[in-house]
Specification:
The complex is a heterotrimer of chains A (180), B (330) and C (437). Chain A has 180 residues and is α/β, with parallel strands linked by helices. Chain A contains 4 helices and 7 strands, in the order H-E-E-H-E-E-E-E-H-E-H. Classes of the chains: A alpha/beta (180), B mainly alpha (330), C mainly alpha (437).
């Protein structure tokens, strides 16, 4: 599997809506290699077709979904790897999705890849995103009654908690001055 | 034998049995540790353990059936101690030899296990319940080979016209090895090995420590026991180890040393007592310590299948050899 | 005795309720009601070395369902990372897990190096690989010992861990620490492996090669171990693929899935590392606990080979492209971008995502994925229809690292180098007072 093949497949499925960037990565000392990673920006309506395309291209693996609060939207990054099993043949594909905070719903990819359930559930509790069609929404890491979504920057409660923790640490170490 | 004498002897045997059981537990732990490339606890560790448990608070869970939960440790100790009184101890005949035979010892050996199972059920914890279920299954599986070994010896004795054949005292006084033919010796050897395999199961030691299985059910039966109750179970286990090893010795290696070296009187008794204790120790080391060091824990279904099919079959083969021997020897 | 009655441990719910199964409509007499009961394992349990709660639905001795609850060690380390500068985060990442204490920093430095465009000198790449392979040896031996303990085979536990001391000694010799080696830094490594140390590593390699037969014997040819691990906790290859299992868990099912092979990084590409499956031992992969043992033991041998070849090939040269930390910090502060770093930890794929905003000391996003995170889902099919007795070994078979997954530790920097017993006591008192206040 090469990045080009993956890119062609994705282009066929999504057409012009796909905004893709190929990032090379140099590895090795004696036998230098250049691996290529795909970073794509897609809309949330294109997520399921895109993941399905990858699944058809080869064995697919969900590494993780990462995300951040990007102001008006929540940015989700799906780090998927396609085509394991051959030396150097796995391509890392990252889908970047912007989800508006007013309507934070994303289709769940667990129907295609059941293994993505844990990471999707984690995003529910940490970012307050909703995944349509996820089998269970139970919390993974936080207590069941935890009131905030810790990675959201518009949550005042979290900032307070952190401040309290940092102050406590400062007090114990006499403040190293470098902390923020 | 006067009643007073019986009481006096029983007291000595019980105290001595408990003491020996605890010391042997220490030896077992020390030797096991050495085999595992560890230093191990000091020999007196079992005494320290029991002493500490005795002064600790005993917690009875709210969900437990209180009286049953509290009564069972006492029952276990009493049963194990009583079994000790029916065992021939080296040169000495069983203290209560006139009042019960080998079959009673079988039942008495089962009682501590039953008591532990009942205590487990009564403690109202799911882990203890699982442990209790397993204990019952274990009990059902190892009892049959044990009974076969015992009955085999008794039957062959009675077929030789030696009575009372079912008395352990008789079995110990008349070693069967010299009285049977070659087929009989083979049969006895098979029964002997069966009994050695049953021993760790009877004592719930690895690979048969399924009812307690620390890493699976967190101590199973014992999970809710603490303080003095746990100490009692510990004591019962120590005594039971002596009883079980003593049973093996009485059935299959009851030979004395004193007669061979021509000692008489008190000296002979002393030597034979020490030799008996030594034999018990050897049986324990062979059947318990080395086995528990060298094996992984089995699963309850594996054990049940093994005892019901393989071990029982082997025991029956041993019995058949004894029968053949009777036919051949007439 | 009534006064002795104490509160039953409230932490562990005693559940023995009978769950009734509704008879299907239209049937007049209800079918015999199958009864199940729940057995909670954890968060505190002797079979678990770390806090996690598994609630099993049991029917007789068979498991009919499992519910996993994690998060008992969650401390929000990723959020903490976004409040500290990258060097501090590097220390945090090292303390995500004591056993994978080189895997997380390697993945993290790779991610930051991609984001900030930092080159790593060749020698540093070799040193990182040597350390991560040493870690693989010690982690796999640790796992083997734990697995033996779960099976009730404590002798094997003691012997395996005794053998494991050798690699820990070498790690201490090379880095100064048995765990938390503090070796990788952005743009290189912090310590070189000196020529005087080569023979010691070589001696360790010979030591383990000499022992490999014995270890194989003890774990793979012992009848009682085999009876407990064969056919237990099976993970089918299709399930492993669908559930995104990683590391030895996936490889035992026959998937040739190894980040070192699939997406080479550092110098792994040079050596064409091959993912090991039970086929390499001449077995048809079943995906049971036995196969997972096979894979891990074979990987110890693979790691020894890799270390040996790395030591031979390692070119002389600088070990870092930023010898001065202030220069590094200045460079990192200017850097903007995002990066992904991955590493095949002993337990499977570790992946770190980092996002740097130019002009800020701290990263704006830091996402960590530990291997157990991926393998969590594969517990369900593995537990299905197994016996209670198999719970510990199945749970252990994925080599769970709950703290990795929960991302736990809090770093305390600048403190004393040694903590005496009294200080430890004082610390614990202090903490208790704080908690009760």
């Amino acid at each position: 599997m090469t990045a080009d093949q993956v890119l062609q497949g994705l282009k066929q499925a999504l057409g012009a809506r796909l905004k893709a960037e190929v990032r090379p990565r140099k590895v090795g000392v004696k036998r230098p290699l250049e691996l290529q990673e795909l970073w794509c920006e897609i809309g949330r309506e294109d997520l399921l077709p895109a993941v399905r395309t990858l699944k058809n291209l080869g064995p697919l693996h969900t590494s993780i979904i990462s995300g951040r609060d990007a102001g008006e939207t929540i940015e989700l990054l799906y780090h998927l790897a396609v085509g394991f099993g051959t030396p150097g043949g796995e391509v890392m594909v990252t889908f970047r999705l912007q989800v508006p905070k007013s309507d934070p719903v994303v289709p769940s990819i667990t129907g295609i890849l059941p293994g993505a359930e844990t990471t999707e559930r984690e995003k529910i509790e940490f970012l307050g995103v909703e995944f349509a069609g996820i089998p269970t929404r139970a919390h993974v890491f936080l207590p069941d009654d935890f009131p905030y979504h810790p990675w959201r920057k518009d949550e005042p409660g979290i900032e307070k908690t952190i401040k309290r923790m940092v102050e406590w640490e400062e007090k114990r170490h006499g403040g190293s001055g470098e902390r923020t | 034998m006067s009643a007073l004498q019986a009481v006096w002897q029983a007291a000595v045997v019980l105290l001595g049995g408990g003491l020996v059981g605890m010391v042997y537990k220490g030896v077992d732990r020390k030797i096991a540790a050495r085999m595992q490339a560890r230093i191990g606890p000091p020999l007196r560790q079992p005494f320290l353990d029991v002493g500490k448990l005795m002064v600790k608070e005993a917690v009875v869970p709210r969900t437990a059936v209180g009286w049953l939960f509290e009564a069972m440790p006492f029952l276990a100790v009493v049963a194990a101690g009583t079994a000790l009184l029916y065992l021939p101890l080296g040169p000495f005949a069983p203290v209560l030899g006139a009042h019960g035979d080998a079959i009673l010892v079988l039942y008495l050996l089962a009682v501590p296990a039953l008591a532990m199972a009942l205590g487990g059920f009564a403690s109202g914890s799911p882990l203890a319940t699982v442990g209790a279920q397993r204990e019952i299954v274990m009990l059902m599986s190892y009892e049959f080979p044990l009974a076969v070994a015992l009955v085999g010896v008794a039957w062959r004795l009675s077929s030789l016209g030696i009575q009372p054949a079912f008395s352990l005292g008789t079995m110990a006084a008349q070693p069967l090895w010299g009285l049977v033919g070659p087929l009989g010796v083979l049969g006895l050897a098979i029964l002997f090995s069966c009994l050695l395999i049953v021993t760790p199961a009877e004592l719930s030691k690895i690979p048969f420590d399924i009812p307690e299985a620390e890493t699976e059910i967190a101590g199973g039966l014992m999970v809710e026991y603490s303080g003095v109750y746990l100490a009692l179970f510990y004591l019962a286990d120590a005594v039971k180890t002596v009883v079980m090893a003593g049973l093996v010795v009485a059935l299959f290696v009851p030979f004395g040393l004193a007669a061979a070296v021509g000692l008489k009187g008190g000296a002979a008794q002393a030597v034979d007592t020490l030799f008996f204790l030594f034999k018990v120790l050897v049986v324990m080391l062979v059947a318990v310590t080395t086995v528990r060091v060298g094996m992984a824990r089995l699963k309850v279904d594996q054990v049940a299948r093994g005892f019901w099919l393989q071990i029982t079959a082997v025991a029956v083969v041993g019995l058949l050899f004894l029968v053949l021997d009777k036919v051949v020897m007439g | 005795m009534a006064d002795r009655e104490k509160e039953h441990n409230p932490g562990i719910p005693v559940v023995a309720e009978k769950v009734k199964v509704e008879a299907p409509p239209g049937e007049e007499r209800p079918a015999p009601v199958p009864t199940t009961y729940e057995v909670p394992i954890g968060p505190i349990h002797p079979a678990l070395k770390e806090p996690i709660r598994l609630t099993f639905k049991i029917e007789g001795e068979r498991i009919r369902g499992v519910e996993v609850r994690t998060g008992f060690a969650h401390r929000g380390i990723e959020l903490m990372g976004t409040k500290r500068n990258l060097i501090q985060v590097l220390y945090l990442s090292e303390r995500i897990c004591g056993i994978c204490s080189i895997s997380h920093p390697i993945a993290f430095t790779l991610a930051v190096e991609q984001a900030a465009g930092i080159e790593v000198p060749a020698r540093a790449q070799y040193i990182r690989v040597i350390f991560s392979e040493l870690e693989r040896i010690h982690s796999h031996l640790l796992w083997a010992g734990v697995a033996a303990h779960e099976l009730g085979f404590d002798t094997l536990l003691h012997l395996t861990w005794k053998v494991r001391e050798k690699v820990l000694d070498i790690l201490e010799e090379l880095s100064g620490n048995r765990i938390d080696y503090a070796i990788p830094i952005f743009g290189g490594v912090r310590r070189d492996i000196t020529p005087e140390q080569y023979p010691k590593v070589g001696e360790m390699i010979r030591y383990y090669r000499g022992l490999s037969d014995e270890l194989m014997d003890a774990f793979l040819r012992d009848p009682s171990v085999e009876a407990r691990t064969r056919g237990v906790g099976v993970l089918e290859p299709q399930e492993a693929e669908a559930l995104c299992a990683v590391g030895p868990t996936a490889r035992a099912s026959g998937l040739r899935k190894d980040v070192r092979q699939d997406r080479p990084y550092l110098v792994y590409g040079d050596y064409a590392v091959k993912a090991i499956t039970p086929e390499d031992y001449g077995l048809k992969p079943l995906g049971d606990v036995y196969d997972k043992t096979v894979v891990r033991l074979l990987e110890v041998g693979q790691s020894l080979d890799l270390i040996e070849r790395c030591l031979e090939d390692m070119p002389p040269g600088p070990i870092t492209s930023f010898p001065k930390i202030p220069a590094l910090l200045a460079h990192l502060k200017k850097a903007a971008g995002e990066g992904l770093g991955w590493h095949e930890a002993p337990r499977g794929e570790v992946i770190h995502y980092i996002r740097l905003e130019g002009g800020l000391d701290e990263p704006s996003v830091w996402k960590v994925k530990a291997p157990t995170y991926s393998n969590l889902m594969s517990w369900k099919p593995m537990f299905e229809d197994q016996e209670i007795a198999d719970i510990p070994i199945i749970a252990a078979s994925i080599d769970p690292c709950i703290c990795c997954m929960d991302r736990v530790h809090v770093v305390r920097e600048g403190g004393e180098a040694w903590v005496t017993k009294e200080e430890l006591l004082k610390l614990s008192w202090e903490k208790t007072r704080r908690l009760t206040r």
